[in-house]
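Lab notebook, design round three. We kept the backbone fixed and only want residue identities now. Task for the bench partner: fill in a sequence for the structure below.
Input C-alpha cells:
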C-alpha cells in the first residue's frame, strides 16, 4: 500500500526544503507554512519540476481556509490537492477534482467519534490521522471509515514510519528531511 507509489509524503516548511524536494525523486510533495505571495511561485516551480504539490490549506498565511480559498487555488494556482481540517474545504476540493485529504486530530474518544461523522459527510479521498504514532488507531480509522489513511504528526524515526505503514497507513507525512527516504 502507498500514496500513489510513495510511502513517505515529504512536507516542506521552508523554501530551501521545498527546493530540495523539487530535485528529489518524489512525485508528490506537500507545501506547509507558505505565504500566499510565495505560493503561486512555488506551485509554478513544482509544475516545472513535474511535481504534484499538495497544499496544506490551513497553514497558508494570508489565505482564509474556506471554500472560496479552494476555488481560488483551483482556478489560479492549480495544486494537485489540498490538506485541511475543514470538511467544507474538502467537499469543495473534490468538486474541483483535486485530491482532498481530511486532517483529523485524534486527541480522545470524542474527537474520534466526531471525526467519523465528518468523514461520512465530506467523503475525502484520504484521511491524515494525527498523531501518526498510534498503530491501533490507524487500523481502527482505516477499517471503520473505509477511507485510506495517511499518518502524520510526531513521526520522528524510521521505526515510527515502519509502524504506521505496518498498521495500514498508505503513507506518512513528515517535515523531517532525515525521513525523506
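Proposed sequence:
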Amino acid at each position: 500500500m502507498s500514496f500513489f507509489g510513495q510511502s513517505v509524503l515529504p512536507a516542506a516548511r521552508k523554501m530551501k526544503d521545498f527546493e530540495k524536494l523539487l530535485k528529489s525523486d518524489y512525485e508528490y510533495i506537500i507545501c506547509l507554512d507558505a505565504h500566499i505571495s510565495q505560493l503561486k511561485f512555488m506551485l509554478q516551480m513544482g509544475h516545472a519540476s513535474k511535481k504534484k504539490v499538495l497544499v496544506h490549506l490551513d497553514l497558508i498565511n494570508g489565505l482564509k481556509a474556506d471554500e472560496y480559498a479552494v476555488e481560488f487555488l483551483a482556478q489560479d494556482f492549480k495544486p494537485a490537492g489540498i490538506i485541511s481540517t475543514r470538511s467544507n474545504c474538502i467537499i469543495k476540493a473534490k468538486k474541483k477534482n483535486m485530491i482532498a485529504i481530511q486532517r483529523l486530530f485524534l486527541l480522545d474518544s470524542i474527537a474520534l467519534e466526531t471525526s467519523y461523522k465528518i468523514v461520512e459527510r465530506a467523503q475525502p479521498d484520504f484521511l491524515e490521522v494525527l498523531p501518526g504514532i498510534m498503530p491501533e488507531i490507524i487500523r481502527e480509522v482505516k477499517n471503520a471509515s473505509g477511507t485510506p489513511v495517511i499518518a502524520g504528526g510526531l513521526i520522528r524515526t524510521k521505526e515510527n514510519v515502519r509502524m504506521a505503514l505496518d498498521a495500514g497507513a498508505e503513507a506518512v507525512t513528515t517535515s523531517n528531511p532525515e525521513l525523506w527516504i
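Keep this in mind before ordering anything: The longest strand covers residues 99-105.
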